[in-house]
Write a structure and sequence with these properties.
About 30% of the residues lie in helices and about 35% in strands. It is α+β, with helices and mostly antiparallel strands and about 180 residues long.
Length: about 180
């Protein structure tokens, strides 16, 4: 099965769709606008990351992985602006049929359930279109908002991974979650 993702309409006229090269300027603006909001939860970013050129390069990298059927880079679009993103990554086939998911929202779109709705739409595609069995996610121990998003989308907590990811410049413990998509 390929990782073809059809656009999904979300509440409030927003759209969840695959990232495109022509999103680079809007992505740079969104990341710049949310730099402080996302900094505690993200890896340390280079200045290049916040530029149109940096986002174009990153988009090309992600689309190359998408073409290899190992990732699905998605954006949440609100008119001409990027309101957030979801990335399905590390897709493994064979006996595993699993992937990782990460997501972020513009600070102006938080607190309304948008992340849960978008994540649920992606999970439906993972099960129905991609044939995946399991999706995993990780959050920092103190990221209770993200843990609530995962719980609302049917994920279960499976443990804590010490020094799991280098976030905000240091190796930090994460809570691991999984969602089994088939009984």
């Amino acid at each position: 099965m390929t990782l073809e993702f059809a656009d999904r309409e979300l509440p409030g006229g927003l759209v969840l769709r695959v990232r495109r090269e022509d999103d680079a300027a809007a992505l740079a603006a969104a990341y710049a606008r949310n730099r402080g909001h996302l900094a505690p939860w993200d890896p340390t970013r280079s200045e290049e990351f916040f530029t149109e050129a940096g986002q174009l390069a990153r988009t090309r990298e992600l689309l190359a992985l998408h073409a290899l059927d190992t990732a699905v880079p998605l954006v949440i679009v609100d008119g001409d602006e990027i309101a957030g993103g979801l990335d399905l990554s590390n897709v493994v086939r064979g006996a595993f049929q699993s992937a990782m998911v990460g997501y972020w929202l513009d600070r102006g779109h938080t607190g309304r359930g948008l992340a849960s709705v978008a994540l649920t739409a992606l999970l439906e595609a993972c099960r129905d279109d991609f044939g995946l069995h399991r999706v995993q996610a990780a959050t920092l121990l103190a990221n209770h908002a993200s843990q609530s998003v995962l719980t609302r989308a049917g994920f279960e907590r499976i443990g804590v991974a010490p020094a799991y990811l280098k976030i905000a410049g240091r190796w930090q413990d994460h809570v691991l979650f999984q969602r089994i998509l088939h009984d």
